[in-house]
Amino acid sequence: MSDIVLSSAVRDNLLSLKNTAKLQSTTQNRLATGLKVNSALDNPNSFFTAAGLNDRASDLTNLLDNMGQAVQTIKAADKGITSITKLVESAKAIANQALQTQSEYQRKTYAEQYNEILQQIEDMARDSDYKGKNLLAGAGNDLQVIFNEDSTSNLTVHPVDYTDTSLSTGLALSDLGTGAGATSAFTLASGTTTIDLTGLQASSKLTDLAAWSDGDVVTVSDGTTSKTFTVGSGTGQIETVQDYVNALNDVQGIKASFDETTDQITIETGLDPAVTLSISKDNAGGGTATNGGIGTGTTTLTSTIMTAAASLSESGGFQVGDTLYITDGNGYEAASLEIDADTTVSDLVSLIKGVKGLDANFASGSVSLVGDVSFNITSTNKDFNIDRLATTDGTVKLTATDSDFKADTDIERILQSINSALDELRSSASNFGTSLSTVQIRTDFTSQMVNTLEVGAGALTIADMNEEGANMLALQTRQQLSSTALSLANQAEQSVLSLFG
């Protein structure tokens, strides 16, 4: 069969329709993809240039993500330093509070609070990590931030170590010694005896009695130590009954009084119950030892332990009007008690228990003390807490181990360390702030650069949708016209057939 031959007019119209269809396909593809260059075939130069720009933009976008995480890591460290600074300022406030009081117990309490603050600082530093990176945890936590594709532009943020507050390269704040408590005890005892001086008054001379003569010597002894008084009118000698009473009162651990109604000297002791006190008079001046208030020559006196309900004034170690003071190792007066006739042993124990940092228990005549810090119990009465005649210190001592906040100089030294730590924190905050600012600036720059690259790539490949829309409309119109032209061409050829009708 021979080939079909088309007329020139038909062939031209068919070709026109084919080209229009091809242009429509291209325009439709651009409208669908939004790109005027979809492959190297469209425009090799624009395609590969845009691809290079987009590749760099992609690389920078990946770096941008890393920079964003670096910003968060630095921010976590910055937040940690801010909180740690507040804790160090709290520690400074505690030290200043300790400096405002002389109470050793309160200072010990402040030292304990100070140590708790340091523990919180270390915990805060350990908790300041972000995705496993902690700029407050020291070695191994260096943060490197890369700013460009070949890593030639970068920043290394070096960490500090605040997880151990005692490090000299960190805050240089060490835990304080809070000291250690101590125990002590003292015995409360009492005993009473009388010496008869029948017929005498307080102002009477002892030698008014036949049993007494100048030169006689009175001896007070606890079996180990003796005190002697010579009867007479000389300096330091006892002449009157009152002189005798005064001499006995000068002996630590006993007290004496004279009752002019009964003509008796009453002697009370507070010495240790194991001590037997004897009062005797010799006959060196010619007196006798068988009468005159000495009885058989020696009067003995043994004390017994006191009960909780007993009045303190019943003991030779206490008198009505005495004042007891409880002071700590800094000399701070924690409590005081003025003794009256109704003040009991139980009252004294209650006073001690009321002192912060000090506790007491009374059993079998002994007051047991437990103290968190050192305490001294003293009295205005020199007979207080004297267990033997040779004893000269009437202080009840409880010696504990001092805390590191005991002395003003200790606290002032700690305050200096705290101020240095605050300087260190401010310096670290400044360094991290500078690094954070740098990373944020580079982040903003990189974001803008990515945008610039993407816009540049788009300028080479992105289609103008308005233009492509207009093209599509024009091509559709052309297609319709081409179809009409083809139809007319066909009709022209068909008119020849009418000649054969």
Automatic annotation (TrEMBL):
Residue span, Flagellin N-terminal domain: 15-139
Limits of the Flagellin C-terminal domain: 415-500
Localization terms from the record: Secreted; Bacterial flagellum
InterPro entries per record: Flagellin (IPR001492), Flagellin_C (IPR046358), Flagellin_N (IPR001029)
Top-level taxon of the source organism: Bacteria
Keywords, alphabetical: Bacterial flagellum, Secreted
Main localization (coarse): secreted
Function, in words: Flagellin is the subunit protein which polymerizes to form the filaments of bacterial flagella.
Family of the protein in this entry: Belongs to the bacterial flagellin family.
Name of this protein: Flagellin
Organism: Roseibium litorale
Lineage: Bacteria, Pseudomonadati, Pseudomonadota, Alphaproteobacteria, Hyphomicrobiales
